[in-house]
Predict the structure.
Amino acid sequence: MKKCSPSIIILFLHFLFINVVPEAVTCQVKPISLHPGNPHYFVYKDKPTILVSSGEHYGAVLNLDFDYIAYLDELQSKGLNLTRTFSGEYVEPSGAFNIARNTLAPVYTRFICPWPRSATPGNLNGGNKFDLTQWDAGYFKRLKDFVSAAQKRDIIIELALFCPFYEDPQWNLSPLNANNNINGVGTVVRTDVYTLDKNGGLLAVQETLVRKILNELKDFSNLVYEICNEPYFGGVTIEWQHHIADIISETEGDFKFRHLISQNIANGAGIINNPHPAVSIFNFHYAAPPYAVAQNYQLNKVIGDNETGFAGNKDSTYRKEGWEFILAGGGLYNNLDYSFTVGHEKGTFVFPSTQPGGGSVELRKQLGYLKKFIYQFDFIHMKPDSTLLVNSQTEKFRVYALTEPGKQYAIYFSRRIDARVELRLAAGTYEVEWMNPRTGKSEKRTVLKHPGGNAILNFPEEKEDMALSVVKAGYKKTQK
């Protein structure tokens, strides 16, 4: 465990002695990073790490009514280790995207953002306008407390610094809109906000905001900065994104440690061309697992599916997507979980069937089983393998495998493909175990003494998805 210096400890005890609790006493430790042995994954606290979660809709900080301690406790209890949150320059109106009790849509009196209200009335969402030349101390206290609480629970925060304005109603609520601030900036259409040359004076505000957040959070280890959520909407230019990446790199240049930067690439899949050198995580939304990962695996960076949830309410949809994405070689998966709302921070809200996505206690358990399954392997030494299953080229099969040939094989079947499974395995004695992704329970365990070549295994009687572990007898994990 990282130890504080004696001087810091003495200072802390002094504060306690005089009955004054310091805002934060932290030791700057190395933040979550790319694993040096396999940069498709992370290392955190000297341990190989994959991020898996089912999180709320990004309003944990900006919505004052949201109890993020109860929320983080729920994630921790299911073994999940990631959440995203928005910075507060973007907020949504009630009813946006047909989301019931949206955490990104607080009532205006309960909305908090980096800038304080002025004495001037007239904000389009109610209340006074914002002053973009000042900082709201209450916001940064809440932000830091949220990150600190997550850090204590080993939960990584992906902080999306910006978000495009999909429609005018979102732009009409933003402090960056000239109608909502007293600073004479932001007299632009929503599609020009994230440009270098048509932003109406907002670029300097954006740069200053980035520097402020980075300096406030520099001592936290559980942070990843995302440049912009879904920049392929709302007129966000690639030049602006690269500029913000430069600002992050420049600001953290004098820090003891730098934080990872993530970039959101596309919905579904897409080939990444000319990536910014400072970006270490490339995220997709609603990802097509074999393509989003396979098309960009050669970049040797983490490929993530950091938002999904617009494909109906069934748990099985998002369970399968998570398993497929991680077993295809992804390093990060996050489902949008609409069961988290104000008053239901434990994720117990029963949302209407008209909700665009899903989320539930059971789904979070199932994603916890995914994380537990993949962590039993020495995954740093594994890579995607499309040749393991002999008949995997048939279109009706959706089978994903990570392997270290001759040592360990992790396989996911999105459904029962046949009574028998034929695998190409190296010679050896293997411990074989089938696991039910819905229950986390072992369905069948056997020992396979294999001479080499194709090995035939009997698929359990399950009609849905199954996970298969094949590990050489006596093999021991050596992850570092």
Notes: The mean pLDDT is 92. The longest helix spans residues 137-152. The chain has nine helices and 21 strands. The two ends are 16 Å apart (CA to CA).
